[in-house]
Amino acid sequence: MNPFAEAWHLLMDGDPYVLAVVLRSLTISGSALVVATLVGLPIGAMIGLSNFRMRVPAIAIVNTGLALPPVVAGLAVYLLLSRTGPLGHLELLFTPWAMGIAQVALAGPYIAAVTLAALESLPPDIGLQARGLGATRLQAALLQLREVKTSLVAAVAAGFGAIISEVGAAMLVGGNILGETRVMTTTIVLETRRGHFGIAIALGAVLLAVALFVNVVLAGLGTRTRRPVLS
Amino acid sequence: MNGASDDAPVLRVSALRHEAGGRTILNVDDFEVPVNAMLAVLGPNGAGKSTLMRILAGLQKPTAGEIEFAGKTGETAVAALRLRSAFVFQSPYLWTGTVRRNLELGLRFRNIEDAERDRRVATIATQLGLESLLDRNGAELSGGEAQRVALARALVLDPDVLFLDEPSSNLDAEAHAALREDLDRVARARAGSIVLATHERPDAFYLADSIAVLRAGRLVQTGTPSELFENPADSFIAGITGAELAMRGVVTSVDGELLTVRVDEHELQAVGESAAGRTIKLAYRPEDLFLSRTAPEGGSARNRFRVQVTEVRSLGALVRVRMSGPAELVAIVTRAAADELELAEDAEIWVQIKATALHGFAM
Questions:
Q1: A193 touching B, CB under 8 A?
Q2: Which of A89, A184, A207, B224 has the fewest CB within 10 Å, making it most exposed?
């Protein structure tokens, strides 16, 4: 059968193997995204809104996280969770937990860096302006985050797109075990090597649909404009 | 409401010192904001006005100093200031959303209930002519409208102390004039005390009940506008109040505050504090020079000399005349007077100035 026709049937018929892989991918990456947001956003906000002694090195570290190659993140998590690693006793290597940890390591710095950059783009005295109207420090911080909410949503959406389409770390720490850690990207690699192009194309189409969805969200956010500064 | 109040100050900082980057930004022994009056902090750019304002408002911690507000000191005073003062910045940031949302913001911080919030927003919008802008997005406003919204969102809080940090510096002439009227009419009515930081001398003299002159982080003189105008403490304040600093001379005799000063071959009489033999600067205001075609006779002006006109320039209804005499002199006269005197380059005329209008300052 033509591999494209096979892919079409796999998707339309709701093939259990394909569906399970897609659901596992969404579950692992979705969970990792929630944790990465809960960690990355406050870190980015804290660095962006505070003035402390180690701020410049902290910014450099967060921005370095933006350029972290997925396979390097995977290697670090592998070494951490391997039998001889500091967290080897938890026996998490080659489980969805290990994949989630690697994805948090990838998306967390990304979300933190975008949050930081968005807050840095605001006028420097904007926090003081809020406090000049009676805001507490917390109210001023929340008000500033609200001003950059478009960038924050975009960061989370882009972070999701990055981790769900990542293959290096997923393969390294997940092991691509059937029914356990086999996700869309690792399945595409495996099935292509096996010559099962229909499955690879079907999963590729789902990944493309996810990427399209993320870009539609980003484009929608990009159409909103904002110019609140008097100059 | 001219004439500073005799009541105790509403806000006071003492032994204030602030340093940044190894440099002393502010060094002020004592600074008081009078109750129910407008105080202008006047000084050139870089004098430390904005830093002083932020420290006064409790938005910035000084390196050293004690703040006292409404009988409270330290952190208690700062906490009280947060809810009983409002600050308008030089470049106000209008938060994303409508003008109404911007006006409500400070009221929400103070947990004012909905009905009262609506009432106060409606009132300030009427007072400042913002009714038609309430549902517009802040991003769509002109600079003048945005500054008016910034003023409104501070005044809607009915603050005990309103801080205005160079509110007119980004505005064109028309918006500037409108803002000045708003400050005089609405801000005085809705705020208790007002502290206006500005480098615009006309704003300070037009609006304020008292003026504190700041130079290089130090308070050099505080007084009513007329006190500063008539008795400037030094040549810097004379300059900031609009005086021309043209001449240098040597004091030849002193009679109380009356100085006789030799400037080249001229003997001039001036007021000031100095001693015989000292070299001083002489300052005058261009509008205090009296010009005539013929040698003046009689009158009370002690200083008279013949000068040559070097430039005549129209300022609209007024004319600025430059002359070479004991030094280069500048006079401001009406257009009618300039026409009557037939002022033109190279014309030779007489200049008179009273001793009391010529101020001597130490170099």
A1: no
A2: A89
Q: B17 by DSSP, 3-state: which?
A: strand
pLDDT for residue B57 is more than 80: yes
Domain assignment present for residue A172? The answer is yes
Are B257 and B223 found together in one domain? Answer: no
ipTM score: 0.75
Structure tokens at B326: 């004991």
The closest CB to that of B89, out of A129, A146, A231, belongs to A129
CATH number at residue B185: 3.40.50.300
Read off the CATH number of the domain in which A126 is found. Answer: 1.10.3720.10
Q: What DSSP line would sit under B85-149, residue for residue?
A: EEEE-SSPBPPSSBHHHHHHHHHHHTT--HHHHHHHHHHHHHHTT-GGGTTSBGGG--HHHHHHH
Q: Which domain holds residue B173?
A: 11-235
CB contacts of B94 in chain A (<8 Å) are 228-230
Question: B347 in helix, strand or coil?
Answer: coil
Interface test with A, best of B56, B82, B95 (most A CBs within 10 A): B95
Which of A131, A132, A227 is the closest to B139 by Cβ?
Answer: A227
Closest Cα to residue B60, out of B69, B68, B50, B47? B50
Q: What percent of chain A has pLDDT over 90?
A: 77
> Residue B346 belongs to a domain with what CATH number?
2.40.50.100
A230/B150 Cβ within 8 A: yes
Mean predicted confidence (pLDDT) in A140-160: 91
Chain A with chain B: Cβ pairs closer than 8 A: 75
Do B342 and B289 share a structural domain?
A: yes
